[in-house]
Amino acid sequence: MATFIDQIREMGVKQAVITKSDEAVERLTAGMNVGDIRAALRGDEPRRPNPRLRPHADGFWLHIRPSFYHNEITRVYPTFHLGWLSTFMFVWETITGIFLMIFYTPSPLIAYSNMWNILSNVPLGQLMRNMHRLGAEVMVLVVALHMLRTFITGSYKKPRQFTWATGMILLVLTLLLSFSGYLLPWDQLAYWALTVFLSGAEAAPAPAVVNQNILLILQGGPSLGAGGLLRWYLLHVLLMPLLLGIFFFVHYYKVVLHGFSLPPGREEIGEDTAKRVPKNERTYFIPDILTSEVMWVSLLSLFLVAGALWFWDAPLEHHADPVVTPLHVVAPWYLSWSQGWLKLADKTLVVGFIPALMVAFIVMPYFEVGKSRRYADRRVGLSISMLFIAFMLVSNWMGTPRFRVQSSPDLEVATKLLPQEGVSPILGIPPDYLWEGEYLPGEPVPDNPHLTYGLEVFADQMARHSCTNYPGTTIGGITLVACQDGDNRMPDPYATFSIVEAQQDLMRLTVHIEALDPENPDEYLYSLDWVSYRHADSNYEEECSFINKSC
Amino acid sequence: MQVKVAIGTIALMITMVIFGYSALREPTRLDQFTRAELGRSIETGATLFASNCSNCHGVSGKAEECYDLATGEQIGCQGLPLNYQPLLCGDTSDRMVAMNWQGTKQAFIQSTISSGRPGTVMPTWSEEFGGPMRPDQVRNLANFVLNWETEELCSGPVITFEWPETVEDFIAQFPEGDAANGKALFVTYGCSGCHGVPDEGVAAAVGPDLSNIAVTGATRVEGQTAEQYVYHSVLYPSDFIAPDCPTGPCSGPPSAMPANFPLRMATNPQDLRDILTYLLGN
Amino acid sequence: MADVAVDASVAGNGITRREFLYYIWGASMVLLTAQAAGVLIWFLIPRFREGEFGGNFLKTLADLPDVNAAPANFADGRFWLVNLDTNQPNARMYQAPDEPEPIVGVAAIYKVCTHLGCIYAWTNSNDRFECPCHGSKYRLDGRRIESPAPRTLDRFKVYAVAEDKTTVLAESPLVDNFYQPFPLPADTAFIRVDTGDRKQGPSMPLLCDFAGNCP
Asked: For chain A, which terminus, N or C, has the lower number of CB atoms within 10 Å?
């Protein structure tokens, strides 16, 4: 090897520099020099021996990636690239998460104000937070879809049973990551969602002393507090990502070892597709698969950034209050099914059932040993899976507050207009349009479309929760249904909405609802004054611009 | 293949545009959110004030209109006015100077709420000192109180009154007293809530019966006339604790009687003259 | 020893010392792991120090109030100690019409109002607990006199402890998942209150209903 000085003497400085750079590139890429790279970018045939295989053979970063794929699995079908996208989502969450960590301390005294700091004092803080939150939900979705696809194409069958098992564990870890991160903002949403779920631990079918101690360990104290926040934070940023990483590598190693499963019908059970790809059915990683992968993540990144900026806003409710539980505590949508189940069955049954379900899923490939992966031969399995998905969707819907957990009708109306947490059509009225006065439901307010709309919502809500003993009675133009025994409606109520200036830039909004007892006209069956305050700067209108807010 | 490269490139370029757009509007947005944080803090503070403080400090913080939190009936206001120029106006308000407070106005309000005022009926609120409120709730309350500082409040004239030491000097300034008006004021200032209405047979419920105060008042403190005793007791109730109250010995010091009459009557000291006339007959 | 065949069937005839030692080593690793797991669980369970809320508070008999007298306040433990006996009723403690059995004994009542979590106070002049926040009122044993509280005040488990500060002579009986007052045995020297063990009070009718003076 001639030294650099010798090379200069031999071919002149310019040529020596070019040669040296070329050598450096070849060493960096573990095998491809500039010419090889250019040839790959141009789509030329590689020289022999193929330098594009050397980064896989000799380099660290590509050593676990296959150097070629079977043609049949390079298109959107059958994988939909969901495994790659799941991996990318994990990387996305890690990076956005680390950026957020810079501005967060896991203490109940500090965490909430940290959140406001991120939103109001960190450049692009809201975007970073929204990207992390949106990314978490997208990751759960992508991972679930990946699992669904793997099931449908029968890719869990021999010899890939263990890959499926590790994949199930990865799903659980993804859900736990989401769950633990949910607590960190330390607002009402975070605190109560976690308290409710952790109290489920107490309901497990095990001796009380075990349950109580498990609850203590999970809560980090007699109730969810400083100890709990720190524990879940550590789970979220250290233990879960570490476990996810470890299981990911096991999972991916097995994927590469057995090769990607070909579309059903192209592959027999037990066939090794990894080592037997005929040369004419190969697509090489460099440059084709790499290009495809980078393109898909570019598109996903665009989707995530645009979504986080314009469509999906992470909520921040009031500071966590251990003594006040807001009405309508909701689980995140991907766990809503468990809340739905809790409404149907005994706590102990549900809490015992879920781990059993998990174990069933993990060991499924060792029992489902049908010899064929073709769709036509798996009608039973596919039908069961569709039924299960339908069941999960119904459970999810049942977990939302609309189903079953209804409080008294006056409170339902009042909290729809002036919720304890979050925004509403009334709160979203721009402050300039909050004109002082007392208004009736459905009353049109000239030159004030926002307030008029809010009052329409008021009328609509009143109509939903009221009935009348005098047919033909209307509220805000909507005819009321007749009162029947046992329905949870207010009989012939009277309702107003008033706006009063309480302080500079601060309006006091009051929903007043009263209804006399038809059997006892001296007594009120319902009498409610529900007060909320609205400051001109509170920015609820901006929050309303996102589609995941109900204004 | 070229299509993929193109799609990838366009996707990343659009992402860059989005980031750039986001960065451009960031200063405005940050400002908006900073104000939103304070706005929402004030909203929360308003709710806390209504359910914890309004029964002593008044619904608009002026110690004028107070309602019992449980029953809703109107009661006398025991607290000092907060929506009040000497407390809120200027970086260093008059009250801060009077209390010799060296820190900021925000800290003054927060500290008072947190620790309370031992020796008065102002409770300790912060859970750091055994009260029921978290530090963020105390901060929200403070922000709400501070939001009463407006140009309107601070541009008006401050009305204070130097209450004379002796009732004789006071009567010298306000010679005429209207007993009928005094009786009406006895109710609106909240006195009847504890002392009943002496000449209408409405018995005193909490505070000592005042029906015969013109005579009994002279016996309370050695060397003090009934007039001086009543005058001093209205302004500084904790200085002399009466022996008997309807439900047992009178509690205190600090007296259960509000200590805010010197402030509240400063706008119209004639009110006290009328009340004295009503109670003492002259 | 060195030339023992590697054949498994031969190994079945007799374990070499080396092999045996490996097995012992493996067993010790398993035992160590099991021990570490146990210790780890102990490590993870939150502890509450004596005298810290969440832990135990040891009080002497002198700390206990007289029968049916005003309650004793323990702010750091966030509880009141009450000494009840409806056989000697007074303004503070009496048997309500729907209480079939006399209520006798010691209880530790949580200082947090069951309405919205405020710290209620004992109002001597009215012989009852009164919450400043929204006016909930409770009898000496924690039962509601007036709403808006939804239920009786919560109670902590109480132990009657002997002179040696360890032997438990009696403890709060659990009836319908709520701790009941219990009379202290004769040789009780100390009272231990476990603030980590709290039971929620039940929802019983308001006492003001019986007196007919509910607001």
From this structure: N
Give the SS3 label for residue A167.
helix
B57 contacts in chain A (CB < 8 Å)? none
All structural domains of chain C with their residue ranges: 2-44, 56-211
Question: Within 13 A of B194's CA, how many CA atoms are on the CB side?
Answer: 16
The pLDDT of residue C9? 55
Question: C46–A222: do the CB atoms touch at under 8 Å?
Answer: yes
B80/B78 Cα distance (integer angstroms):
7
Taking the C-alpha atoms of residue C69 and residue C90, their distance in angstroms, rounded to an integer, is: 9
What are the structure tokens assigned to A424, written together? Answer: 């509403």
C-alpha span between A336 and A348 (Å, rounded): 18
- For residue A159, say if its preceding peptide bond is cis, omega within 30 degrees of 0: yes
* pTM of the full structure: 0.83
Tell whether C126 lies on the interface with B, counting CB pairs under 8 A. Answer: yes
Number of Cβ within 10 Å of residue C117's Cβ equals 14
The residue to which tokens 């330098």 are assigned: A51
Q: Which of A323, A420, A527 to mutate to test the interface with C (most CBs of C within 10 A)?
A: A323
Expressed in angstroms, the distance from the first to the final Cα of chain B is: 106
What residues contact A544, with CB distance under 8 A and at least 6 apart?
A423, A428, A551
Q: Is residue A343 part of a domain?
A: yes
Give the domain range for residue A467: 409-544
Contact A121 B34 (CB under 8 A): yes
Q: How far is A85 from chain B (nearest CA, A)?
A: 15
DSSP strand pairing (C155-161 vs C168-171): antiparallel
Q: Which helix (H) or strand (E) holds A349?
A: helix A347-367
**Residue in the block written with tokens 């000449």:** B199
Whether residue A238 is predicted with pLDDT greater than 80 in this model: the reply is yes
**Number of domains making up chain A:** 3
- Do A394 and A416 lie in a common domain? no
Residue type, B19: F
For residue A374, which amino acid is it? R
Phi and psi at A482, nearest 5°, equal -75, 145
In a domain, A371, yes or no: yes
Residues whose CB is less than 8 angstroms from the CB of residue B233 and which lie 6 or more positions away in sequence, other chains included: B239, B240, B257
User: Inter-chain contact B43–A535, Cβ cutoff 8 Å?
Assistant: yes
Pick the CATH number of C56-211 from 2.60.40.1640, 2.102.10.10, 3.40.50.720, 3.40.50.2300: 2.102.10.10
CA distance C70 to C66: 8
Q: How crowded is residue B157: how many other Cβ atoms within 10 Å of its Cβ?
A: 6
